[in-house]
Amino acid sequence: MGIPVNSTVHKVMTNTRRRRHRLDIFNELETLIAMQREKMTLMQDQFLWKHGSDKFKPVFVTKLTWELTRKHEQPVAWWKAIWFQHCTPKYAVHNRLSTGNRMLAWNANANFTTRWSELMDLSMDTSRGLLETFLTRYTIQATIYSLWKERNDRRHGATPTTAATLARMVDRQVRDRCLAFHQQGNFKLAA
């Protein structure tokens, strides 16, 4: 086609001339390039972000992008056990719960707990005070996250961590979170 391999779209649109080719496919490409040249304007390119099904604006809004890209499903009963005020997003266990369910389907003899409903019931129980409810939820999340991370580390050849070390790590994570509340002046949750 006479277009160098290292050419940019800008060079093709501004510096190349139309040629005649033996193959029809190349002539069709030349026609498409010519049609695009006719549509060109001298305006600067502009980034547009999708804000709905047919709306595009030059402003990026994270919430709208999330709403347009996520898979919408009905809320589940246990969502508060995972997403609660002051939770740590990386500890949210919903993906790890589904991973456990998939693993159980692949191997009925899998060696891990399937008593997620009991953990979720414990985490959703709000009959205790605000502090105890938070500590229960946060400790469950930190524990599940640490066990999940340890399992993945072992699968990828890392040196195993002892149970005592894992327990100290979870304890430290929970204590650090409570210290952060104290520093932020949130004394309701500063244990």
TrEMBL record:
Protein name as annotated: Uncharacterized protein LOC108825144
Species whose genome carries this gene: Raphanus sativus (Radish)
Gene assigned in the entry: LOC108825144
